[in-house]
Amino acid sequence: MPPTRDTSIRRGLEVLMTLQTRRARENGGLGVTQIAEALDMDKSQISRSLKVLAEYGLVDRDPKTRAFRLGWRIFSMAQVSGDQRLLECAGEVLDDLVGQLDESVYLSVRSGFDALTVAERTANHSIQAMPSHWSLHSTSVGRVLLTDRTSAEIRDMYAGQQLSSARSGGVQSVDGLVEAVSRARDDGYATVVDEFEVGLTAVGVPVRDYRGIMVAAFGVSGPTFRLEPKIDHAVTSLKKAAEQLEDLLALRDGVRFPSGREA
Questions:
Q1: Are 162 and 235 in contact (CB under 8 A)?
Q2: What is the predicted pLDDT for the residue at 211?
Q3: pLDDT per residue as tens digits for the range 113-127
Q4: DSSP string covering 199-245, please?
Q5: Measuring CA to CA, how many Å separate 154 from each of 129, 145, 182, 260?
Q6: 20 to 30 A Cα–Cα from 52, which one of 25, 192, 230, 261?
Q7: Where are the beta strands (DSSP E) in 92-184?
Q8: What stretch of H or E contains 138?
Q9: CB–CB of 94/120 below 8 Å?
Q10: Does the fold of domain 84-252 match that of domain 3-77?
Q11: 220 within 8 A of 102, measured Cβ to Cβ
Q12: What's the CATH class of domain 3-77?
């Protein structure tokens, strides 16, 4: 692939990533100047990328504010992206889970250095947190999703990177991350208190297919004052939810477990 085309593709993808941030969603989109500043790029380059993305329906422009936002083509593509079987099975499990925990619950998958939320249920509280994507190193679902990587692979993945935490005692180095992931692997779950965001606590557990391969992670998050006292209950509920989803996925594949019990 010619370098110029490769650069154009990367720039277009970075524009799309910028338009899916919380800032863009809350403001109904971003202008050319805002996108250029966020990416530290020239406005003319961003304008060219936006023009091409608009031609394919991947971005739309508000006729009044002139701000750009993700286009309907993106939502159409999302409906057929990823493992549809996983999403179809997860819905009823999330419905039960939010009722049990009365906190926002979600299903996440790994996407680069982020844990991407692909399905969620929101509790009826005025105070809650539900980012669309979470950094792997500072979140519970992220650390759980990293448990299928060896320590060497994690070190290689984060080589040369400076990790940050919202609190002083959080993971701020690759060594600290490797230790946290190892602990999550041994425990079968991960908890994060005030690391992703001060005042936010989260718990994550892995979801595996019948072969034992990691496919996603269930998570719950809420204000620390409300969720931290019921972490044990959250862990138990999430693990049961993961087992339920794993059984549903196995049933879809017609798998019979060694014990003779069908999923």
A1: no
A2: 86
A3: 888 888 889 887 644
A4: TEEEEEEEEE-TTS-EEEEEEEEEEHHHHGGGHHHHHHHHHHHHHHH
A5: 27, 11, 11, 37
A6: 25
A7: 104-111, 114-121, 133-135
A8: none
A9: yes
A10: no
A11: no
A12: mainly alpha
Q: Where are the alpha helices (DSSP H) in 57-102?
A: 72-78, 84-101
Name residue 262's beta-bridge partners.
Answer: 256
Q: Token digits for 49?
A: 């990328």
CATH code assigned to 84-252:
3.30.450.40
Q: What is the predicted pLDDT for the residue at 261? A: 44
DSSP structure class, residue 46: H
Q: How far apart are CA 161 and CA 157, in angstroms?
A: 9
Give the chain's end-to-end CA distance (angstroms, integer). Answer: 46
Q: What residue has token string 């936006």?
A: 50
Q: Which two tokens stand for residue 233?
A: 């209950």
Indicate the pLDDT class of residue 20, thresholds 50, 70 and 90.
confident
Token representation of residue 195: 């690391």
Q: Where are the domains of the chain?
A: 3-77, 84-252
